[in-house]
Amino acid sequence: MPPEEAAGCEDHYCLTVAPRFQLRRSFIGRIDGNSGVEREGDCLHSRSDWRPLQAEELSSLVTEVSGPGAVLPATHLGLLQIPDRIRGAWWREAEKSAPSQAFEQVFSTLIDFLRFKRLPFPERVHLEVAVNAPNLASTRAAPGGGRQGLAYRDCAAAGSERARQALGLVNLGDEAAFIVLLELPPSTLAARLEAAGESGASALSPDRLVNRYFEVFPRQRLLRVRLEPGEGLWLSPHGVVHDGWTRGKRDLDVVLSVRAEVGDESHEAVEGARAGFGTGHAGIEIGE
Amino acid sequence: MNERFGPLDLLVVQPTPFCNIDCSYCYLPDRGNRKRIRPEVLERTFAWALESGLVRRPYTIVWHAGEPLVLPTAFYEDAFATAARFASSDGMATHAFQTNGTLIDDQWCTFFQRHDIRVGVSVDGPSFLHDMNRKTRSGGGTHDRVIAGIRRLQHHGISFHVISVLTREALDYPDELHAFYVENGIEHVGFNIEEIEGPNEDSSLSVDDAALRYRDFMSRFFDLAMSGDPPMRIREFDNMISAVLYTGEERLLSAQEATPFAIVSVDCEGTFSTFSPELLGLPSDVYGGFGLGNVFRDPFAEVVASGRFQSMARDVDAGIAKCREECSYFRFCGGGAPANKYFENGSFDSTETLFCRLQRKALAEVVLSKLQGPRPRCADAA
Predict the structure, then answer these.
(1) pLDDT band at residue A27, thresholds of 50, 70 and 90?
(2) Strands A253-262 and A223-227
(3) What are phi and psi of B234, to 5 degrees?
(4) pLDDT of residue B380 exceeding 90
């Protein structure tokens, strides 16, 4: 029995529609699974053997978070939908020949919207729009160029004290976008490695932790989430291993990410996440 | 003596108690009853209004309290002709329909145009909100049929407004509501809140954080509405801005409902009442009912001298006096709606209601904050 199948009872992220959002389409036909990763140099990519999840697989992943005052728990990844007017405003600005101040206004409008919906949100966030060509197995850019591949935290740019981590992703494009992710939080990766005899896994840097995990569990299933235009996925502040996927697309992939800075003592972040899974925002810098 | 009352602004006529749908928050107690108003009742209604001396300026005849469109256009052709026979040189009547929209077709549109009727359509926004409460008797949604009705109005170039009921759930969706109005060419909106009245004995808004959430909703909706070119017209903002900016003598926003005989509501048997239209037909332990008389039997002079009216008017006045004394928002309000006071507090002689907390206090705070300056930037987007 492969080790990734032996270790199947740890905490994992669930998928849900984020509270106070309504989506035109449910989870049926939205989630695929595969048989793990493949390596290209230092980069980890998802394998391309995607298949629709079976009903029982889906039911173990998808839960409802509802009720008065509900907020998206840190244990859940929440689907969301932004208003067409905001996506339209972004495109009107993007199609202008010179960047203008109005971009900031569009982003500010988006932030106001997401805050109104009471998504878990730090005071200071960074918004980035990544435009990628079709037919890529990874869209996650490395600071020095090239691809970072599957990761939950960005590589810190040279000279930068703080790395960033995605809190949410929104498809601004006109065609469906795909987010590839691992439904296990960093604390679970460390716990599984330690259970497999890798002592000190929780002290590994984010990069090393993800790399080591997939070295030990290369057939670990990944999920591929389909996001229609205007739809998004709110991630967990504990960190979600993810990447983009543009294979099979015809148009440019245009994905906005909402990112927050995180402390550079990465092992503390993992420890914090382990201790606080489902209870807080460990590792995410909140406030200026 | 009659100058002390009215003048008549709204004559609310119930052509039938029947409604073809079954909204979960409806205050009408008898909406399965297919009775319809008889021609002689209509004739006496208009005659009574004319004889009362209340018609001293143009007023509106609102066909409501039951779904008016379940009766055929021929009924209204006759009814309008009857109303015209009792027209007063002191005040012309215009006709208005408040409809659930599900029965609007080309024939109705032609009728609306021919008589220059003001049309209000009740729609609660996108289907996931609307169909939560506005259902058929078998529990199905009505949204598709309402939208089809709105399309017919638009096809014929008939202007209309919509009224949307805000429930607790709706307060989470200002952007979705705004997008719905924009996408469907709806330019003029009134927001009612889900109120505690008659058979609707509880409201989803009877929760501790309702005022906060209502304020957040209205604040966001204000920004969305004003971002349009032209801005979307929202009844609540229009009225509150007028009240806030008005610097003359005391002007009361809701004086109409608290002013005796500014509104007269008549049911299909000819029984009439005044103050809030919702009162008609509902029971009252305090007054033995809210009906003040019948258009066949009770002349206006006798009605205003009756013990029931005197008690009701005294309690309404006493409640308003308390509001004036106790509430710093009085100038934006005028003392609240009597029906809300009665059904929430058990008496007209009372003060704050859910309606006050939301549609007056929270709304005034939103409008004041918007008029006082630009909103602060709440995000530092890089």
Answers:
(1) confident
(2) unpaired
(3) -115, 120
(4) no
CA distance B57 to B82: 19
ipTM of the modeled complex: 0.83
State pLDDT tens for residues A200-258.
Answer: 999 999 989 999 999 999 999 999 999 999 999 999 999 999 999 999 999 999 999 99
Contact A267, A237 (CB under 8 A): no
Alpha-carbon distance A53 to A31, whole Å?
6
What is the mean pLDDT of the segment spanning A179-206? 94
- Cα dist. B171→B41, B193, B216 in Å? 42, 10, 8
The whole-angstrom separation of Cα A190 and Cα A196 is: 10
Q: What is the DSSP letter of B361?
A: I
Q: Which domains does chain B have, with CATH numbers?
A: 2-245 (3.20.20.70)
Residues of chain B found within 8 Å of residue A69, distances taken between Cβ atoms: 209
Q: How many CB atoms lie within 10 A of CB A254?
A: 21
> How far is Cα B219 from Cα B358, in angstroms, rounded to an integer?
12
Query: What does the CA dihedral B348, B350, B356, B360 come to, rounded to 10 degrees?
Result: 90
Interface test with A, best of B175, B177, B180, B220 (most A CBs within 10 A): B175
Stretch 78-97 of chain A: residues touching chain B, C-beta under 8 Å: 83-85
Chain A interface, best mutation among B129, B130, B131, B172, by max A CB count within 10 A: B172
